[in-house]
Design goal:
The structure is a homodimer of 248-residue chains. Chain A has 248 residues and is of the alpha+beta class. Chain A has 2 domains: 8-149, Sandwich (Jelly Rolls), CATH 2.60.120.10; 156-237, Arc Repressor Mutant, subunit A, CATH 1.10.10. Chain A is 36% helix and 24% strand. The first copy, chain A, is built from 7 helices and 12 strands. In chain A, a hairpin with a 5-residue loop joins strand 5 and strand 6. In chain A, helix 4 packs across helix 7 (231-238) and helix 5 crosses helix 6. The first copy, chain A, binds a DNA duplex (30 and 30 nucleotides) through helix 6.
DNA sequence: CGCTTCCTTGAGTAAATTCAAGACTTGTGG
DNA sequence: CCACAAGTCTTGAATTTACTCAAGGAAGCG
């Protein structure tokens, strides 16, 4: 028996002090515009493992991820599941003009969202071009990412998929590898979740990670933290490059 | 020896008579706005098999597909290729705020585009909310389609992929199956192109199509035209539904 | 400490790929 | 009009990759 998941209403941080101020949907807002957003926003936190929104739900809120990691997933009737998005801090949930969601959103770690009531947000967007432009940018970035992921899902081997996934984590966590190594990266997903992201089984994910470890490409600090020992070998393994991203 | 591919500049059709008037980027424009677009547009045709734009090219034009079929593809260094989009009439090429392309665009059949010089188009968009809203809708529709395709690429079997692909052709060509059958559909791609779309090999595509034919689900009129004999069986085979889309 | 969840590894299997050969189409030139 | 070539498609056989099934080990939580 587990207690009912608790969605907590938090005191919102002032936009000016927000950790994602410079990257989120509000990135290019003036302080006047921030004031408008401030009026309709509320912070909510979701415990790890709990659903944030279900497919088909009416979209009451749109939101930015402030802290934590969430996933977007789609499933077939028989349970086969494919992750279609990984939401890290500053990523946005919900789209103007859509009233329902076409996938499930789940908190993977404890997640704090900066929520805006959808209707109020949509009204605000109309006379706030900085926000609508940013939304367009966000949508196009997601589209580019989705198309890269299609190449991965359709054509890459298990090893290439894993290497590409790890490389994406490095880039999205802004950990630059300056000396051929990258230290102390968070691996926020379980093996099964990684498998659902990459179109593999959890056993295959485990085997490939073990192999990269055995080949001294990566090293695990614990189950959810790792380091890249040989960044060039990792790049080679992604399949994107034949030269491992060397400066020629 | 083949003659150099000829990109032809055609006399543009008046927007009012345009076959894609009601669905393209200009769908919700007023006649004044259409007049503005009319001033900066030009029709260009590309022969079947020729490239329209290359990855990395500077984006000089944005365009709507008026007639014909084009593909968006990405490739790994070793030649493995994944199609990431199929452009049918009324679909749009290019994005506001992006100056380069991240994939190749290729004419699969003879293609006629309604081209707008990118800079002029971007200026126009700023004071034409009907166009910018439509662009946003288009981007979000593409994102939804990309995510459905991710589920297909990551989790569906070869048979399910083929069935889903055929079902998509039925929907996008607006051929409603009223009586459990659908007649005379265009199959605009070669087996290899279908394979690149579905993340399969051309042999697997051929085998699966043969199997659907042998099971009396589909029938070929010629290599590029087919009919659906048993629409429910096709829906069953997509894996999306357990009931084949029956009204319960 | 004991339970549950998550992870690893091995053995056998299944699905799709690769390699290969031949058939059908379509267009071209004699 | 026919023959031939190039491109496309089909089918078979062997192989490979990743999957399934299974067991045991490690980690995290009450």
């Amino acid at each position: 028996m587990t207690a009912a998941p608790k969605i907590t209403l938090e005191t919102s941080v002032k936009c000016g002090e927000c950790p994602i101020r410079h990257r989120a949907v509000c990135a290019s807002c003036t302080s006047d515009e921030l004031g408008e957003l401030e009026k309709i926003k509320s912070y909510r936190t979701f415990p790890a493992g709990t659903p944030i929104m279900w497919r088909g739900d009416e979209l009451v809120y749109v939101a930015s991820v402030v802290r934590g990691v969430a996933t977007l997933t789609k499933a077939l009737e028989d349970g086969r599941t494919q992750m279609v998005g990984l939401l890290l801090p500053s990523d946005f949930i919900g789209r103007p003009g859509r009233t329902t969601l076409d996938f499930d959103v789940t908190a993977v770690s404890d997640v704090t969202l900066c929520c805006f009531e959808r209707r109020a947000f949509e009204e605000l967007v109309v006379h706030t071009p900085h926000v609508s432009q940013r939304l367009m940018e966000i949508a196009l970035d997601e589209l580019d990412a989705a198309r890269d992921w299609m190449l991965l899902l359709g054509r890459k081997t298990a090893r290439e998929k894993i290497a590409t996934f790890l490389d994406m984590l490095i880039r999205r966590q802004n950990m630059q590898g300056l000396d051929g190594a990258v230290l102390d990266l968070a691996l926020p997903l379980t093996r099964e979740e990684i498998a659902n992201y990459l179109g593999l089984t959890l056993e295959t994910v485990s085997r490939q990670l073990s192999q990269l470890k055995a080949q001294n490409v990566i090293r695990f600090l614990d189950r959810k933290r790792f380091e890249v020992v040989d960044l060039q070998a990792l790049h080679m393994a992604t399949g994107d490059d034949s030269d491992g991203g060397m400066i020629s």
